[in-house]
Amino acid sequence: MGRDARPKKSLGASLHSRIKESRVLMVGAGGIGCELLKNLVLTGFGEIHLVDLDTIDLSNLNRQFLFGMQHIKKSKAIVARETAGKFNPNVKLEAHHANIKDPQFNVKWFKGFDLVFNALDNLDARKHVNRMCLAAYVPLIESGTTGYHGQVQVIKQGETECYDCNPKQVPKSFPVCTIRSTPSQPIHCIVWAKSYLFAEVFGTSEDSSTELDQGQNEENAQEIANLRREASELNSIREKMDSPDFAKCIFEKVFGRDIDRLLSMEDMWKSRKPPTPLDHAKVLEEASGIGPEVAREDQKTWCLAENYAVFADSVKRLSQRMLELKAKAKEGDAPPILSFDKDDEDTLDFVAAGANLRSHAFGIELKSKFDIKQMAGNIIPAIATTNAITAGLCVLQAFKVLRNDLQSGKMVFLAKNSDRAFNAEKLAPPNPECQVCGVARVSVEANIAVATLGDLIEKVVRTELGYGEDISVLTSQLLYDIDYDDNLDTPLKELGFEDETFVTIVDEEEGEGVVPRANLEIVVTHSEELADETITVPEKIEIPRKPKRSTAPEETTGEAIKHALEDNEDGGVAKKRKLNDGLTFIEDRPNKKRAVVPDADADLIVLEDDGAITID
Amino acid sequence: MASTAPSGMPSSKEKKYDRQLRLWGADGQNKLEASHIALFGASAAGCEILKNLILPGIGRFTIIDDKKVEESDLGVNFFLDDDSVGKSRAERTAALLGELNPDVEGDYIEDSFSNLVATKPELFQPGWTPFTHIIVVSPFNTDDVLKLSPEIPTFLVHSIGSTAMLRISASTRCVVDTHPDTLIDLRLLNPWEELSAMVAEKTKDLGIAEKDGGMSDHEHGHVPYVLLLLKFLEDWKAAHGGNPPSTYAEKNAFKDMIRNSMRMDVPGGSEENYEEAIAAVLKNIRAAEISSHTKAVLEDPRCINPTPECETFWIIAHAVREFMNRDDQGAGLLPLSGGFPDMKAESSTYVALQNIYRSRARRDATFVHENAKAVLRKLGRDPELITLDEVSLFTKHANFVRRINYRTIAAEYNFPPDDFHKKAVTSALQSYNAEWNPSLIYDYVALRAWQEYYSKIGQLPGEDDNYLDSDIREQMRITAVDYLSSIGYQSNIDHRLDQMLQEIIRAGGSELHVIASLIGGIVAQEIVKVITSQYVPVNNTVIFDGIKSRTSVFEF
Ligand SMILES: [Zn+2]
Fold it and tell me: In this predicted complex, what is the ipTM?
């Protein structure tokens, strides 16, 4: 019996040959990715492309078995190809050490695949691939795990829900005043230590950090101004980095004087427990005799003196690194900075001790370094077993797709529940209100250096497609609406267009008996060959009208669903998802701005990425 | 003196295992590292299971297999390469799997399961065996697995075409750290003195407007919802003959009562703490109930009469039982978990309230600890054997502890079958419905027929092309029907059985890599649960259908 004999027998000849002829793309070569690639190679998929930007880290090795110690810091995509490729010489493997959002991976490139697998770890890239697959009409198998939980979903334009049909949990952000002035939970102090203290002393300063919600109002404008001043004072302490008193300088400023200043704002503490400034001399004395090795006890909650010892020692280590970087820097180089990395012990020690010292001053519970690492680094637990199960389910769903049998495709949820390993549900149809897949699509070509926004709107949108006056045109920003026509004469390139750009047209026509068109997504591809402002439109298409809005159910419906859930805690993930579905109707009317831009900034708020499902 | 060497560097092992330590902690990891897993059958499924155990760092593994590597193995087993063809399958897979993790020691024995069971019984004897856990992957003879000791945790695995099955057998598992979704227990219907005192203090001006000397809007909007609920419960009870709201209608009326005292003329039109209180009514206004699992533990003879040799689990369970029975301790209630939710509150009030729950939990754990010491003394054991930490872990999970009595494999294969087995299979067959309850019970019946065919004939059904599939199917169908009548099932047999027989015969005993990989994940997950004594392992059979991506769990 040859290598192929067994798979052929079990799968049946026709599916087996379809698998052999298929060309698939795998985005992400992490935990699920390693398993998936192994499965795809051994199942005999004809041609597999993998894309991953990451390099291999020690903490990957407990599950990403295509990598070994000798591969640390190398490209995941390239090493995965080398390791897995050996196991089936008949499979063509191509690896790209690149970002899937790079322009080379355009809609045309996606169209070259029969199937795409998402094995990603972040919301932003997932949403991107979802959109590309929808635009290219390529089926997508989306997957993710966290701890013992996992999820697999088949997505196809027009036939199933897409990744964005259900709103995703938005990462949490904190008001700047909570972080800087009135913390009440350990996480507030951890964010403070990481995004403020560390950034000001060793990294890039606050204005460029996005973890804080800078939204301000009249009321706290004064306080924000104070905080700005405080930050720049701290930033200037950097100059004393080569002084033996550097740790003392930082300590006395942030745990002494800054807290005294906060205390002086009596209004703030009328109904809150006021903080207590820390006395450097006293803490220093208590900490004498505590060696830096206490930092190794990462499961223990350190006392004040131990936190001080770790703080002082990590300041010493980080300053030393900065000074070495400075010494090496050439003239004209940007001043060196350090950035927080949960796996970089020096930075983690500084943040852990800094957060705990602040917690101490504010009477907040202290945390162990182990816990702080998880909270500061947005760590998602990950193990081999869940990845193996999830990747296996991805391939089984791929079989359905290759058989053109989406009817029996499934959305599968994995739970740690011992009564059943997982729940499978029929695939849901697209959400007609979804702003990502519920759009009409058309592709055009233009020379973006010459053609203007006015050309696009007049020639394509109005003349070819028959839109009226009242429309909005958006990319990641609003380009045009009836009250904003400043950009009409601007060439597309100057409006941020690239080789391939998605433009959304929203029909704003309103009135008695008028049903506006569904949103239209135009993919504008740049073409050097077009010498003038001509824009080529392939064929005339009919833009469907918006689906009739479902009338919002009375509020009690939402309540009733909630109760059903509360009373049935064993509902599992599946039920919860249904709950979300039910509640989406209650949301506001879709907002066109939110519609087009899957909030790109959201991902930068690092604390709690994408909630339930995240892979590694 | 200044050194840039990071003094806080954890060992590289901790770094490597960081992502899983967050699931099972150092204790779970130590237990993993102390295990020695035997794998009988270096099939694709077997190797995938081991892969998922070697990666997280078990201590040792031994692979037992007597076959030589064939070219067709390469198409399904990732842990064999071109150079392996013709060599010992045990040796080659042990070598390639061993490369996955230098911290794990690997070994192999080139021999068959049947032969070892017959010639080296000491390998399978509790007290003698070097193996802590045994995995046996099909094909195996039923008679051979019946010789395995029920004391050693054993995992029987089938992976045939699109179908896979796991059967777990082990001595009783006692799990404390079950990782329930929540440990929060507010005891709203059983407040104690300190809690009631805080309610009185923090809610005394609740109904008074600020202008009349009552609370400011800020204070009113920051009374923690737990205190609100306790306060309104007192009011409710006063008006209802001392009874708390119990029916759905009463709970709704209780919610209205809370809603009516919310201040509406505040920014946003409502108060978050009141909203939280209303949302918590259905879930939290209920009598402290003891879960059926905990009851099973407390009623177990091992709990009622612990012995000088028994596990500490039973001593602590006994101490908890005593705690509940004593009026000066639990007075009928389990020890408090101490779990406390987040809520809208001033941080100082929140911390004070949280401390009331925590000190109560600590008080309860200390009582249990004292009881446990007394039992140890009475049994002539070291009274310091059980630490307060161990007791606290138990009392924290008191309502979630599990005792799993695994049925033996012999009990499942008994002829004639025992009543438990008969009832389990018959009731699953009776409730089967292709539309709305498509459980995998017929897959089980088909796999039993497969197992019997192999054990009797020594050949995989469908493996030899000289036999017609239809003949084999007929033969297996007769076996299946015989089995069904042996358990007393005479009713109608669903078409699913024939479908399944056809499926597994068509596979001819061949594995499909993706199914092997998937069941490899499921089996390894259960083994990790059993080794670490954390989370609740399956009791005792899980079947997977790769065509519909479904699983069923049965106790046979
Ligand atoms: Zn959608």
Answer: 0.91
